[in-house]
């Protein structure tokens, strides 16, 4: 053991060999000397120095090298002036320095390991450790000191180099201790202190200030570089500023003042390469793998934690894992996690961070405590995760500015910033000329999350931000997730901004030296982008440019304030340099997109408050020119925008489909442009827009009109309503000194796109082909004002007659087109019920200044019924000058008597904007045809159907089959008869239904030669059918009461007693009935013509009473023992009561009472199958003839006059026949059943038949 020191000078050689070599003081080599220590453990207690031109100190240990500074020296390992220090240990190199606070103040700057000009440091060990620790002291700080005091773990100075290699881990740390207590009398520490900060690693070459101090005469070859290589071959690098409190507990001492601190700093012409499996660079994070900082009680000022500046370069490479930059500090002024800043004079400044198999992660979690507010309230300014800062060309006069580039590449990149109070919080920032940030995820996501939890006035919170010519490229192989949240303390209002992406071309202050004021942000994702900002998701101002695209997924943007826009481009103030004045502030978004302002609301009128997209330039921003803004949204897939699209002051918004895609857009919000703003909105096939179009031309013209009227004291022009005036200023539009108060809204609609227009709209052009404009006023008339119309479109409008014109929609066009337009009337039933034929009853729907016969004069747009006749609704153009309806009352009815921004422009404004010698009014007129309406024809059909049903003959055979009707024993009886009938005829298809009859009979007279029976029965049935030639149906219910009277006459038994038994069974009968029917018809008709889709639904219900009186005569005539036949004749007379009703369309139907007389002749041919069972089979045939014509039917609307009634002739006389068969049988004593079938032919019947069955009881 050497208790003193070892000093070698000149060319001397010193060698120390042993198992444990210990030097109680320092080891120093100078000149060309060399000192070498070889041992298992080498210990030097007061530092190792090598400061000769070729001096060397070599410590070689098979186990550990340990170097300390027991004598309170300010350096533990120091190489300078060309000297070399080589520390090689098979296990551990452990270098440490520990000073008390008073000594620290005395020395000023303290370095643990220092390689000065032209010197070399070599460290090679299984593990390397460099640690600095400052012990607490009771000494008073020299608070008035003006020198900067720095505490650096490993420093490489100009011309120096260090190579630190560990087979496993490298640990380089600075322990904060409890130093730098700010005295309570310092109200403004930033203005009075002079203290430095903490830096585990500092690498410095020739700086810009060195060149300036040398009078600018240094050339690149004369510059000195500092070089560091830090490698953990199979382990990690731990570089940290940590807390020295016991058990790693947070130190509660308030107000630590750390100025110009850094974790790793490369400055000037310096270069550093850091390589390890994982690289942990932490500040206040005792556990580098933890999720929270260990202590926050530092006032961090001007601290880029991992920094390359002034022409320096740094590479940080995680070979298998992550690069982690973790920062915990109370608050900060210009505090950044990773930064490349200040351009070099001859060389660029760069910082490359790579984790090919892991994550680049930067976490900034500064908090703010009450203990610090009293002493550091002005220190809260700017905290960010990543920064590239170039030359500020607004004030720079140094000429060429070299690039400053920050590049971060990893599987995923993550940036988190959180603060309780910070006036500026940023995630990734590129600021000043030639500043470039390139962030790339190779397989995962880029995540940027910024949370401001304070309530600072005008606080700014940005996820991505460029300023003054900075550039950022964010590229992800999967998703980009960017969130900037402003979360004020409880009960506080949002008084700042929080923007996901912000690009600012130049500040609003100094605008005189702008040479290339363009800042750009490029965001691309192979999958999706998710961008959120409390106030704006994407923001560009003063020549800022933002480009965003998602290849396979979508871009989702959201913000929360109705007073801001989700996507916003703005020119705050003009510049005096005209060379770049035409370069617009630009936002380009391409691909599937969802843009939502969650604060946007829609009123009951349909007006949207809150903008999703907002582009606002600046008129006359410099002599002879304007600042313009441009937002290009090129949508694909299923894209949506919720909130208004607004442009003004030379701002432009283009919403168009992406080239080569078939995307659709759903826009829920207004399209508004004023003061030379332009909105170009393109709706593809399948797209939908719900909102108002407003180019302010209508409101501007109204303002001009009313101003002129006000000047004329005799004018009676009225002002707009309060609601109307409010609409003019509902969006984010700023009134400035402008050339034009109106803007341009161009709408292009293709395919099946739809625009649902809730209130009056004014657009500059409507183009494209195939779209539909829906006037969606919910029963209140709305107007659409179009400057120029091209292409073919459909206008779906609600039209009403003059009495209800306030509810009728209107279309106003300045310049029409020869392309054909289509009018779709959405309330056709209502309009048809209100309209009448005749030119004076026309309904106006459009006024066009320069018409190209858009709707085609004379075109029939609907064929429908009004009352009794078919009507054509035809388009009719009329020159305004000769229009018979061009009257004050009619014009006011359809145009509105005064201007109302929500509904109609008013006649005065219409005449001002759309008048002229060529102006045309366009009407819908109703023209009567000679063709009866479907309703009229079906009224006749209904009467005939009821007539057939109610006069259908009942017969003795239908009622009984061939049952033995007269029973000499039974006195009483009953029966049930069920019938299914189909009475279809030429005019009615499938007119069928079921009837149920219940009857009771009584034998009134019973003698051998004469029997008399009377019956009473009640029946109910319903038949339904559809009209053969019309769209509709009918349903008839029949309830009737029947009285039957039957007489049977047989020969005197004595006169036939000699005949065979089968010949004795003969008789004659007379059968009569009286029926009283009550019928109810329910009918529905959908009037249509020639395949047009327009139709009117008409319904009617009415009753009719009918009485039938019938007499039938027949005889049973035996043919042989098993056959007999029954010839018959019947005559029925019917009285049909009148019909009177009014249908749902207001038309009257009427038929007078009438008579029917039907005769029948026919026969039954019967085969007796079993005499004992009285089972019989029979066939039958009948011939019918109607002798009278049916009643005429009169149908029409009384208000239309007698000429508008239609009279249809009732069904006339006719003949038809039927054939049938049946079976009857006695099933027991007094019980009989029968079944009967028949089918009709002739007299219009088609497939008409009936099937019935019955059962009777006698007792």
Mean pLDDT: 84
Rg, alpha carbons? 51 Å
Q: List unreliable stretches of 5+ residues.
A: 137-148, 178-195, 244-257, 369-379, 393-399, 508-513, 576-580, 709-738
Beta-strand percent range: over 45%
Which class best fits the helix and strand makeup? mainly beta
| Biggest sheet overview | 21 strands, parallel
Instruction: Please give the share of residues in helix.
Output: under 10%
The total of helices stands at 13
The 3D shape can be described as elongated
Helices and strands, with pairings:
Layout: E1 6-8, E2 13-23, E3 27-29, E4 34-44, E5 48-50, E6 56-67, E7 75-79, E8 84-100, H1 101-107, E9 110-115, E10 120-135, E11 151-156, E12 161-166, E13 170-175, H2 189-192, E14 198-204, H3 208-213, E15 226-232, E16 236-242, E17 256-259, E18 264-267, E19 270-276, E20 278-283, E21 298-309, E22 313-318, E23 323-327, E24 331-341, E25 349-364, H4 370-376, E26 382-389, E27 404-419, E28 424-431, E29 435-441, E30 446-452, E31 460-467, E32 471-476, E33 480-486, E34 497-504, E35 519-525, E36 529-533, E37 536-541, E38 544-550, E39 555-559, E40 565-570, E41 585-591, E42 593-597, E43 601-602, E44 608-609, E45 611-616, E46 618-622, E47 625-627, E48 629-635, E49 638-642, E50 644-648, E51 651-657, E52 664-668, E53 671-673, E54 678-683, E55 688-690, E56 693-694, H5 697-711, H6 722-728, E57 744-750, E58 754-757, E59 761-769, E60 772-775, E61 783-789, E62 794-797, E63 810-815, E64 822-825, H7 828-834, E65 843-850, E66 860-866, E67 869-879, H8 888-895, H9 907-914, E68 920-932, H10 934-950, H11 956-960, E69 972-982, ...
Parallel strand pairs: 1-3, 2-4, 3-5, 4-6, 5-7, 6-8, 7-9, 8-10, 9-11, 10-12, 10-13, 11-14, 12-15, 13-16, 14-18, 15-19, 16-20, 17-21, 18-21, 19-22, 20-23, 21-24, 22-25, 23-25, 24-26, 25-27, 26-28, 27-29, 27-30, 28-31, 29-32, 30-33, 31-34, 32-35, 33-36, 34-37, 35-38, 36-39, 37-40, 38-41, ...
Antiparallel strand pairs: 43-44, 46-47, 65-68, 66-67, 67-68, 69-70, 69-84, 70-71, 71-72, 72-73, 73-74, 74-75, 75-78, 76-77, 77-80, 78-79, 79-82, 80-81, 82-83, 83-84
Helix pairs in contact: 5-9
């Amino acid at each position: 053991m050497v208790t003193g020191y070892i000093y070698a000078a000149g060319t001397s050689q010193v060698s120390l060999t042993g198992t444990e070599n210990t030097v109680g003081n320092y080891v120093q080599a100078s000149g060309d000397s060399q000192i070498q220590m070889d041992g298992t453990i080498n210990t030097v207690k007061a530092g190792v120095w090598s400061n000769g031109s070729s001096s060397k100190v070599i410590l070689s240990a098979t186990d550990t090298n340990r170097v300390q500074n027991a004598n309170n020296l300010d350096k533990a390992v120091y190489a300078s002036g060309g000297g070399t220090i080589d520390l090689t240990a098979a296990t551990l190199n452990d270098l440490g320095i520990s000073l008390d606070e008073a000594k620290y103040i005395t020395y000023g700057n303290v370095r643990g390991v220092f390689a000065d000009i032209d010197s070399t440091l070599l460290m090679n060990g299984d593990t390397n450790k460099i640690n600095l620790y400052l012990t607490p002291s009771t000494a008073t700080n020299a608070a008035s000191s003006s020198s900067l005091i720095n505490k650096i773990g490993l420093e490489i100075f100009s011309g120096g180099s260090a190579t630190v290699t560990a087979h496993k881990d490298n640990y380089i740390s600075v322990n904060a201790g409890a130093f730098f207590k700010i005295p309570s009398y310092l109200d403004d520490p930033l203005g009075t202190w002079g203290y430095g900060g903490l830096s585990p690693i500092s690498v410095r070459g020739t700086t810009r200030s060195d060149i300036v101090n040398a009078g600018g005469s240094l050339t690149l070859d004369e510059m000195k570089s500092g070089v560091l290589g830090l490698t953990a071959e199979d382990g990690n690098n731990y570089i940290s500023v940590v807390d020295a409190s016991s058990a790693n507990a947070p130190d509660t001492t308030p107000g630590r003042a750390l100025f110009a601190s850094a974790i790793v700093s490369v400055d000037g012409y310096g270069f550093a390469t850091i390589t390890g499996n994982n690289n942990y660079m932490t500040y206040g994070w005792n556990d580098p793998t933890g999720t929270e900082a260990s202590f926050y009680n530092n006032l961090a000022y001007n601290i880029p934690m991992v920094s390359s500046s002034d022409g320096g370069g740094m590479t940080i490479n995680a070979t298998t894992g992550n690069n982690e930059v973790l920062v915990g500090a109370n608050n900060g002024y210009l505090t950044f996690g990773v930064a490349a800043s200040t351009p070099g004079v001859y060389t660029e400044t760069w910082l490359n961070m790579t984790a090919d198999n892991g994550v680049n992660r930067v976490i900034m979690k500064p908090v703010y405590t009450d203990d610090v507010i009293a002493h550091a309230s002005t220190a809260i300014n700017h905290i960010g995760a990543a920064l590239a800062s170039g030359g500020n060309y607004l004030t720079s006069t140094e000429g060429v500015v070299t690039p400053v580039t920050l590049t971060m590449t990893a599987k995923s990149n993550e940036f988190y910033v959180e603060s309780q109070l910070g006036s500026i919080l940023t995630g990734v920032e590129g600021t000043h000329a030639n500043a470039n940030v390139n962030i790339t995820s190779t397989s995962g996501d880029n995540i940027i999350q910024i949370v401001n939890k304070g309530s600072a006035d005008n606080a700014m919170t940005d996820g991505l931000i460029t300023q003054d010519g900075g550039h950022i490229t964010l590229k992800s192989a999967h998703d980009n997730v960017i969130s900037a949240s402003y979360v004020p303390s409880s009960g506080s209002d949002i008084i700042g901004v929080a923007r996901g992406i912000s690009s600012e071309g130049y500040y609003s202050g100094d605008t005189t030296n702008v040479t290339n004021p363009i800042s750009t942000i490029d965001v691309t994702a192979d999958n999706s982008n998710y961008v959120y900002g409390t106030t704006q998701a994407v923001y560009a101002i003063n020549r800022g440019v933002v480009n965003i695209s998602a290849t396979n997924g979508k871009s989702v943007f959201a913000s929360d304030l109705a007073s801001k826009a989700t996507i916003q481009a703005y020119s705050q103030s003009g510049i005096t340099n005209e060379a770049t004045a035409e370069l617009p502030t630009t936002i380009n978004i391409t691909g599937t997109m969802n843009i939502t302002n969650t604060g946007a609301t829609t009123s009951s009128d349909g007006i949207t408050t809150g903008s999703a997209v907002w582009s606002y330039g600046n008129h006359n921003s410099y002599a002879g020119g304007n600042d313009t803004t441009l937002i290009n949204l090129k949508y694909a897939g299923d894209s949506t925008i919720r909130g208004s699209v607004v442009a003004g002051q030379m701002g432009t918004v283009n919403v168009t489909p992406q080239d080569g895609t078939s995307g659709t857009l759903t826009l829920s919000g207004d399209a508004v442009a004023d003061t030379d703003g332009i909105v170009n909105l393109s709706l593809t096939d399948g797209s939908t827009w719900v909102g108002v179009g407003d180019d302010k031309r209508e409101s501007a013209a109204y303002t001009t009109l009313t101003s002129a009227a006000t000047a004329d004291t005799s004018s009676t022009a009225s002002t707009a309503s309060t609601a109307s005036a409010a609409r003019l200023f509902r969006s984010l539009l700023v009134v400035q000194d402008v050339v034009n108060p109106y803007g341009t809204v161009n709408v292009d609609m293709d395919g099946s796109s739809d625009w649902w227009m809730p209130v009056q709209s004014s657009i500059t052009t409507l183009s494209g082909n195939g779209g539909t404009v829906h006037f969606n006023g919910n029963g209140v008339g709305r107007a659409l004002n179009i400057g120029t119309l091209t292409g073919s479109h459909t206008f779906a409008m609600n039209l009403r007659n003059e009495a209800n014109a306030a509810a009728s929609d209107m279309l106003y066009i300045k310049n029409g087109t020869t392309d054909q337009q289509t009018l779709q009337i959405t309330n056709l039933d209502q309009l048809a019920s209100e309209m009448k034929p005749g030119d004076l009853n026309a309904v106006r729907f459009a006024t066009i200044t320069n018409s190209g016969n858009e709707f085609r004069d004379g075109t029939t747009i609907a064929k429908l019924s009004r009352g009794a006749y078919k009507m054509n609704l035809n388009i009719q153009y009329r020159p305004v000058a000769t229009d018979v309806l061009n009257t004050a009352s009619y014009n006011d009815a359809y145009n509105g008597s005064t201007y109302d921004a929500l509904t109609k422009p008013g006649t005065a404004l219409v005449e001002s904007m759309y008048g002229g010698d060529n102006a045309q009014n366009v009407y819908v007129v109703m023209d009567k045809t000679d063709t009866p309406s479907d309703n009229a024809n079906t009224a006749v059909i209904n009467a005939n159907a009821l007539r057939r049903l109610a006069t259908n003959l009942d017969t003795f055979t239908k009622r009984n089959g061939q049952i033995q009707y007269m029973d000499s024993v039974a006195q009483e009886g009953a029966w049930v008869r069920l019938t299914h009938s189909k009475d279809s005829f030429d005019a009615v298809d499938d007119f069928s239904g079921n009837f149920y009859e219940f009857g009771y009979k009584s034998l009134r007279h019973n003698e051998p030669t004469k029997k008399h029976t009377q019956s009473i029965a009640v029946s109910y049935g319903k038949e339904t059918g559809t009209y053969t030639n019309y769209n509709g149906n009918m349903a008839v219910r029949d309830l009737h009461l029947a009285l039957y009277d039957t007489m049977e006459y047989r020969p005197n038994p004595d006169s036939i007693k000699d005949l065979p038994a089968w010949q004795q069974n003969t008789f004659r009968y007379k059968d009569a009935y009286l029926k009283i029917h009550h019928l109810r018809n329910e009918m529905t008709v959908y009037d249509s013509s020639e395949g047009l889709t327009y139709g009117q639904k008409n319904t009617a219900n009415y009753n009719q009473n009918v009485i039938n009186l019938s007499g039938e005569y027949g005889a049973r005539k035996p043919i042989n023992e098993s056959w007999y036949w029954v010839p018959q004749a019947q005559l029925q007379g019917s009285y049909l009561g009148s019909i009177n009703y009014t249908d749902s369309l207001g038309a009257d139907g009427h038929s007078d009472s009438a008579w029917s007389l039907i005769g029948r002749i026919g026969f039954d041919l019967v085969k007796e199958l079993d005499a004992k069972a009285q089972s019989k089979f029979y066939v039958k045939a009948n011939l019918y003839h109607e002798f009278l014509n049916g009643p005429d039917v009169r149908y029409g609307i009384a208000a239309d006059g007698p000429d508008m009634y239609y009279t249809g002739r009732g069904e006339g006389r006719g003949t038809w026949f039927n054939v049938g068969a049946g079976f009857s049988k006695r099933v027991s004593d007094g019980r009989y059943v029968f079944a009967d079938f028949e089918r009709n032919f002739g007299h219009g019947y088609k497939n008409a038949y009936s099937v019935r069955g019955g059962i009777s009881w006698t007792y």
